[in-house]
Write a structure and sequence with these properties.
It contains 24 helices and 13 strands. With 591 residues, the chain is of the alpha/beta class. Strands 1-5-8-9 form a 4-stranded parallel beta sheet. It has a 4-stranded parallel beta sheet with strand order 10-11-12-13. Strands 3-2-4 form a 3-stranded antiparallel beta sheet. The structure holds inosine. This is adenosine deaminase. One of its GO terms (cellular component) is extracellular region.
Length: 591
Amino acid sequence: MSNPEETKELLAESIRTAQSSHEYRQDRGKLLAAEKEGVWYAGARAQALPSEPRTQEIVLRIRESERIDPTLYGNLPSEAVPDSSTRDMGGRFLANKSRIAESRLFKIAQRMPKGCHLHIHFNSELPPEELFPHARGSTVLQTMHVRTTKPLSSRENFALAEVVLSVLPKDTKNSDCFAPEYNPDAKDPNNSPWMLWSDFRKSFPSDVDCEETPEGLDKAECWAREKMVVTRRNTYNDVQTHNGAWACFNQGTRAFKGLVNYESVYRWYIGKAIDSMVRDRVMYAELRPMLMDKSIPSDDGTRKLDLKDQMTIICEEVQKKRDAMEKQGELDRFPFGLKIIYCTPRSIPKPKMQSELNDCIQLKLQFPDLICGFDLVGAEDRPNSIGFYADLLVGFAATCKSLKISIPFMFHAGESLLDTGGSFNPDNSNLYDALLLNCKRIGHGYALLKHPLLIERYKKQDICLELCPISNELLHLCGNIREHPFPALLAAGLHCTLNADNPGLYRGATHDSSSLSYEFYQVMVGDTRMTIHGWKQLAQWSIEHSCLSAADKERGLKIFQKDWEEFCVWVDDTYGGYADNLTSPALPNLS
Ligand SMILES: O=c1[nH]cnc2c1ncn2[C@@H]1O[C@H](CO)[C@@H](O)[C@H]1O
């Protein structure tokens, strides 16, 4: 033990060291500067407009003031237990939804030019609230049918039953879903489980409770809607599991399909989907329809429209929209139309996969400018892995090469916490096969951080990640955006884009058509290191990694640059004064 004199001397010495610790502070400054220099959005920052630091300052001031604003989030650390009106900024998406609607930061995210939307399932751009009015409309009044997987004769069955909508000829034999003797078997050729949707709506009891009752929908529609969309109750309830969330979601997509897949609405949908993207400041999209179902019905249910008919409708409606926009002098808002990524389920046997691959090539030959990729869909924790089909996929790539056509793979890969390709063996991870099969981009890539070698290889092969953060939360990969690995994936140097995946099913009960705006909002509140240079970089990558031609990409980037300039001016004009008057804490220097 040292004597008191020695202790005194040591303490005096340490105070002297602290006073002369400039060196430490300098080292620390250098360390931070080095990290900032190599930050993932350095490219966008290097080309920032002179006005961008100002935009950055406004956005940060607003974000940080909204974090502590008691009417929005109220995230002030305190010993007092906060009241039930507080929410975490970057907490659960659906719980925060009503706050986001009030947020200035969200309004800025809505106004921001987004570039391209590269990962969105075809049916889910629009919410069910916009589709139900069509399903009760005159053209399908006699033909829109419904079946349930249980008789709706007890309260319990209302909760348990799955629902499917479909347009069928008007002479379809009608059943009564509400009768105790209702037979739901859809596979038995001697049974017709279908009930006319208009009868179903009339017979629907008035005392069935729904979690959400969006304006304009009747009881039956609210009930059916809840079988389709992800709600707070079905995703956040404390006994929900990962598989449970996926099962609900899959039931939802099966139910939802019937609302979009008939001739008049399919046609109407294309234009409306484009309108919604334009409002969301998206300039181009690559949509993913599930094309294993080969046809959709005409409104009277008597004709079948095959894949060629469907693709023709898409081309016609895109052209109509282009013509209308050109007339308004607004073609730059959606200059390249749409492209289609052929999707088929990962659950099918090999011979079926072979015929799907053949169908994809046929469709590409018929619609060379429309078909731009091939993907496998469905939960990755269920069979099959991509590797299971490797021979067929290698053969497909070789066939495309000899036909001189390009159909790059854009597989869902790494959208999993198990990362075992639907097996018990981590060696079956889809992330290996996505690399070896030369994917142009992958859907999600959530699990990629587990593979440092793959990270390097993905970068080398310039494989872009289509991140879908809200989808990942709602399907139980993470608890909220702050737990999502996007900051680490970006910091690892991977090129990423932001995507809404299934916005029509993820939006909650609000009549608004934003989809990508929510994703951009989420990353800004999900990581304190996100900046508007980061926003811009993500949008620019979405153009660079799209399937547009080199000339279109160049044009797209030019349009984006002009839109970005206007955006920065708009932010200052609209929120500059407001932000200057905020008395928020000292802001971090992120520029
Ligand atoms: O995030 C996803 N991962 C994998 N499959 C998906 C995802 N979202 C939708 N689907 C699947 O795509 C088909 C058409 O929508 C549906 O089968 C749905 O389950």
